[in-house]
Amino acid sequence: MVEVMHDTLGKFADLYGSYWYYIGTAAVGLLVLVLFYRKLTGPKLPPGPFAWPVIGNIPHMGTQPHISLLNLSKKYGPLMYMQLGSVPTIVIQSPEMAKEVLRTQDHIWASRPLTIVGEVFFYDRQDLLFAPIGPLFKLLRRTCVNSLFTPKRIQQFQAVRKEMITLFIQKLLQECKGGKPATVDNMLKETNFNNISKILYGKSYYGLKTKNVDGSLNAREFHEIPELWAKVAGGVIVGDYLPFLRPLDIGGCEALLKTLREEFNVFLTSVIEEHRQRVPAPGTEDFVDVLLTLPADDQGHRLTEIQIKSFLQDLTLGGIDTTTTGIFWPLLQLMRHPEHRKKVQEELDVVVGRDRLVDESDLPRLPYLRATIKEAFRVPTAVPFLAPRESLEACKIAGYDIPKGTRLIVNAYAIHNSPEFWLEPEKFDPDRFLDPKNPVKHDEYKYIPFGGGRRMCPGMDSATLFVESFLARLLHCCDLSLPEGMIPQDVDSGASFGVTLAPTTSLRVIATPRLTLKVYKDAGIAL
To answer: Do the record's keywords include Nucleus (predicted)?
Structure first.
């Protein structure tokens, strides 16, 4: 009896096992046919790596996405298609492709995608950075060009820049007395923070040794916000790429953004109320004064208080993070390459001399200093990815079909560090920007530290002027050396990915005066 049952069950299993085998084979065959049909009839997409179900190509990004994508371009080329979760994305990694999307098709690629940072932190994209193309973007962009970053307005804040740089040099020299090394990272952050906040808000909010410091609780909390924001915005927010997981708020990013937005709101509310109670003298207005008194445009559009707050958040966060790294990396490269540091100082001595301190009016006559800063903007590229864009309509790039709503990543790091576009790209060589036989032209799009097209950074001239002034004064005033036992090759140039490339280790230097005591006294630098 047992043997009969065993034989019966065996035949049953064989029958239905073969049945499911044929069903499975048919299903796989049908899937292959569907995929093949889609490939024949669907859009001709750019090449790219295999995308996993659900998560797509997110694993390909790694912990250093700018380097991962550069390596992938060696296999798939400068125009690459990726599926980041549910987000179709193209990656641009050559000057030719950058020129195509940033200039030729800028009208298609000038808008921004909806992201959690833009929605939550910037009041549903009521700012300039995350605003989609439309009336608000045009109004804010026009405000930058016509009211905030005009040559006259930039010149108005020359005294602020000079004060902040002077305080930095004084503090650095005092900390280095007796040959002691000083860590410059936090000092740079404090200096740039105070420079930005005095231009925007009329006050310094970082440290207790600057003039006109607001020591309130709100102010002390205020200078912690940019660092926390950069950590969130520079990381992967899961809900942006896998929307069905957004309610879980994996990592707590959305909750933190809401907290930071409310803290920033409390601060900005008090600042705006304070500004409404005063009437500044002509020529002394800060950015808040300007924004509160802007007239309506030709269409009757006027900035609301929420839009002013969002715009100020843009200007604060963008100015602090990018300009601080914009000073740090040139300084680090000059400590790694003392021969270039010497050439910058020799240029300063020839053009300016040692009887007075270098001034902003001297900068146009300091080409090697400017070339050094440009080269430090190229390598390592402080802002590795341009801010993401999104296509407003379907288009073609290099013969490939790009659907409407595709995300765009421009890997500026790859463009700046590829041997295909730069001779010995890993080499720090300011002279490449001074070569008359092979000039670096902006319209070639091989050098894009500030982006391109209508989304180019509106504060480019102001930020560049501060970096140039800072490094010119520092190198004119101070001889810099490394702590005892260190050689230039010991200076760590490692960086971690984020909105900007952040240094992995601190920079320590020893500064000593190199000018006469009278020059320091005249400049208000107490030794």
So the answer is: no
Domain holding 490, by residue range, is 43-523
Which of 453, 410, 458, 385 is closest to 105 using CA atoms?
453
Residue 494 Rama label (left phi>0; alpha psi -120 to 50; beta): beta
Cβ atoms 463, 153 nearer than 8 A: no
* Residue 4 within a domain: no
Q: Residue 29 has what pLDDT?
A: 58
Structure pTM? 0.89
- Give Cα 440 distance to the centre of its chain: 22
Q: How many domains does the chain have?
A: 1
Q: How far apart are the first and last CA of the chain?
A: 106
Q: What confidence tens digit (pLDDT) does each residue in 218-255 have? A: 555 677 888 889 889 988 999 999 999 999 999 999 99
Q: Is the residue at 3 inside a domain? A: no
| Lowest mean pLDDT across 16-20, 258-262, 286-290 | 16-20
Q: Are 376 and 330 in contact (CB under 8 A)?
A: yes
- Chain position carrying tokens 């994508």: 69
CATH number of the domain at 513, please: 1.10.630.10
Query: pLDDT tens for residues 151-183?
Result: 999 999 999 999 999 999 999 999 999 999 999
Q: Given this model, what pLDDT does residue 9 score?
A: 45
Residue with the larger pLDDT of the pair 39 and 475: 475
The DSSP secondary structure of 193-237, one letter per residue, reads: HHHHHHHHHSSB-S-SSSTTB--SHHHHHHTTHHHHHHHHHTS--
Residue with tokens 């006050």: 203
- Express each pLDDT in 482-516 by its tens digit: 999 999 999 999 999 999 998 999 999 999 999 99
Report yes or no on 49 lying in a domain.
Answer: yes
d(CA 189, CA 373): 18
- Tell me whether residue 395 is annotated as binding: no
Asked if residue 25 is part of any domain, the answer here is: no
Rg (CA), the chain: 27
Residue 93 pLDDT greater than 60, yes or no: yes
Listed residue (113, 119, 64) closest to 90, CA to CA? 113
